[in-house]
Write a structure and sequence with these properties.
This protein is mostly helical. It has two domains: 1-49; 56-105, no CATH class. Helix content is 55%, strand content 0%. It contains six helices and no strands. The longest helix is centred in the N-terminal third of the chain and has 17 residues, at 17-33. The radius of gyration is 20 Å and the shape is elongated.
Length: 112
Amino acid sequence: MPLSGYQLAHTKAGAKPSTVNRETAYSKLGFKLLWLSVPQVSQLVENNVRQGFLRIPDFHALLAEIKDPDVRDLIEFLYNSGCRQWKPMAMQWSLARSRQLDGAAAGGVLEE
């Protein structure tokens, strides 16, 4: 099945365009790694751009109202990093100086 047919079938099955685009990109990479001709296929239009809901001055005003310094640090980290709240809250901070966290900071995946 050509990649465009895969895109169509997968979106009809309920997959979001961003998921299909990532899967198609991995497939194209597989073709390259196997030294095969890479099929030309357009990416699907993604409509999932995240937008901040607080302007920077409003965010700083919010931080000023948070009394607990640990909560304030967590909120500031979440806002500045763009992480979803569950990811940093699942981190084991005892790993802060370990290889796992160093790897995550270098673009790797944090081991939980």
